[in-house]
């Protein structure tokens, strides 16, 4: 049984930082590209960042320069370091695993569709 478990969310003031983690089990982690999506209330899932299974990473324009994705294949874990957080970053953050996407350079892989497994989400609230 595949499980993705996110942690690290919380309440932070604007300009603050958080580090999200997503621990995977039940799959061959190195065979999957891993992504972070977020969903604000009443809105759709939006791509935040992706870590390609062959190396490399991609970011949405809204987070580039502030967020950093990394993965540790030995620990079956993907991380999202979020710095200089803004109120508009407030959302539930989900990690997702895709066996089909090799890189995140196209709109198809930046959509939820090709992602096989999802975590339950972790809430990030940026507010003073």
Structural commentary:
The protein is mainly beta. It has no helices and 11 strands. Strands 2, 4, 5, 6, 9, 10 and 11 form a 7-stranded mixed β-sheet that branches. It has a 4-stranded antiparallel β-sheet with strand order 1-3-8-7, with no helix packed on it. A hairpin with a 4-residue loop joins strand 7 and strand 8. The protein starts with a strand and ends with a strand. The model has no long low-confidence stretch (mean pLDDT 96).
Sum up the overall morphology in one term.
globular
Order of helices and strands: EEEEEEEEEEE
Low-pLDDT parts are: none
Mean pLDDT, as a whole number?
96
Strand tally is 11
* Helical segment count: 0
The helix content is under 10%
Lay out the secondary structure.
Elements: E1 3-7, E2 10-12, E3 18-25, E4 33-39, E5 46-51, E6 57-59, E7 67-72, E8 77-82, E9 91-98, E10 117-118, E11 122-126
Parallel strand pairs: 2-11
Antiparallel strand pairs: 1-3, 3-8, 4-5, 4-9, 5-6, 7-8, 9-10, 9-11
What key attributes describe this structure?
7-stranded mixed β-sheet; mainly beta; 128 residues
Short description:
By secondary structure, the protein is mainly β. It contains no helices and eleven strands.
């Amino acid at each position: 049984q595949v499980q993705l478990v996110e942690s690290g969310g919380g309440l932070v003031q604007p300009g603050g930082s958080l580090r999200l983690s997503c621990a995977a089990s039940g799959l061959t982690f190195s065979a999957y590209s891993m992504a972070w999506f977020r969903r604000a209330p009443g809105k759709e899932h939006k791509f935040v960042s992706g870590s390609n299974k062959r190396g490399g990473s991609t970011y949405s324009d809204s987070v580039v320069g502030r967020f950093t994705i990394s993965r540790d294949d030995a620990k079956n874990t993907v991380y999202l370091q979020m710095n200089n957080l803004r109120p508009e970053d407030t959302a539930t953050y989900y990690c997702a695993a895709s066996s089909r996407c090799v890189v995140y350079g196209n709109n198809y892989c930046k959509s939820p569709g090709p992602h096989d497994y999802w975590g339950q989400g972790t809430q990030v609230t940026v507010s003073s």
